[in-house]
Amino acid sequence: MTVVDLEKDVPQDAPRPAPQDAPATGPATAADAVAELPDVPRRIGGFTRSGVLSLLGAAASGLCVTVLLFGELAPFSGALGFFITAYLSFLGIYAVLTGLDEDAQAVRDRVMTVVLWTSGGLMFCALAMVVGFTAWRGREALPHGNFFTQDMQAAGPLDPLTHGGIAHAMLGTLIMITIALTITVPLGLACAVYLNQIPGRFSRFVRTIVEAMTALPSIVAGLMVYAVWILGLGMQKSGLAAGFAISVMMLPIVIRAADVVLRLVPGNLTEASEALGAPRWRTVWHVVLPTARSGLATAVILGTARGIGETSPVLLTAGFTAALNADPTSGPMVSLPLAVFNFVKSPEPTMIARGFGSAAVLMALVLILFAIARVIGGRGPGHQNKRQARRAARASRRDTDRFGQLHTPGLDLFEPTAPANPGETNAPLGDAENPGESSAPLGGAGNGATSHDAPAPENGEPAPEPAPTDGEQPLSSTGDEH
């Protein structure tokens, strides 16, 4: 804080010029030197010219050092070792160059920034390669319209791409994932709310079981449904059994993700709701779940991504068919991952192209489901879209009008009611039976107190009491019979 001299209007801690006739002193102390330095905040983001030059110089130096090591100085070989050595050399040289101008904290910040950018770039490149390679290999099958409208019942491995399609696999995937979501979403969200709102010994046990089920192999879930539903109950292989197996795989993912999201809801929101008298279920329904809606949609997305790509549970519980089957309760049914597996293992180029085309359709289907879940989930807490903002504004206007009507004078709630006996003195103004008479004004004190319209007493004299009406006893000086 800067202290200002009110007389001279000059900061007192500002350096003052020494007088000309003052004797020369020794060198300034370290405290004086630090006090004269300007207080400039350190930049923690953005690009600077020195930072860019250091980055480019470190990259060129690391590449040169790696070429010398692999070509002249050391018997190194291999492309993977070359890239790893070049990257480590780059990081070391970049740290040294940054340390010439910055302190240790800034060096660590710059180096970790480079590491994180590199990791993100590698992940993006890997995703782009997977999507691009799949779409490129399936480019032969995707342009044909029959690929999306026909099944493989009348097409064989040697038939061209103009015959047959994956309509049966697309329909089977949609039916299975719909059944799985119908089972998983209510159970998963209810279990997550239980773990979050009712802590205790049993909830810790349930959380342990859920975490253990996360690492459950998919083939075990398929075998369990196969043993119970098909062998034990005597049911046939169908899409319903496959939906049960997929829901077993999705359930722990949804529960864990939703539990983590519900823990992030601020506690003061639930405390405020309960302080207003709301029961626990109403607090959860109107406060906790709407606040965590976006995160819960993400939890459902993660579970869907896990279940929609399963192959072994579908093969054990739904079987395989080349015909279109829209009934999930009877008959075998096939999904897109299982169709991709059967297409790709064939040696025929047309079947391989159908397999990669099916994989591309599966990725597009997952992307569409993700977009739908994101739209349903909406934005995070505190962020509203235009429709939600208009709805909130309309609700605020309705509440404002309602409160204004409750507190407006002249309503029946605040007006005096007509007495049962017209002869009573507390009849309202303008009595219907005595139009010439009027009761005491509402603005005055009804218990004998001085009315606001009466003249104020002078010289400290007490105010005169109102004259009693017919049949009424005069009131005492206290102004209240009670």
What class would the helix/strand composition place it in? mainly alpha
Mean pLDDT: 78
The geometry reads as: globular
User: Which band does the percent of strand residues land in?
Assistant: under 5%
Spans of at least 5 consecutive residues with low confidence: 1-26, 425-454, 468-482
Overview of this structure, please?
Helices cover 58% and strands 1% of the residues. A two-stranded antiparallel sheet has the order 1-2. The protein has 482 residues and is mostly helical. The longest helix is centred in the N-terminal third of the chain and has 34 residues, at 104-137. The chain is globular. It is built from 16 helices and two strands. A hairpin with a 4-residue loop joins strand 1 and strand 2. Helix 6 (167-197) packs parallel to helix 9 (239-263) and helix 8 (218-232) packs across helix 9 (239-263).
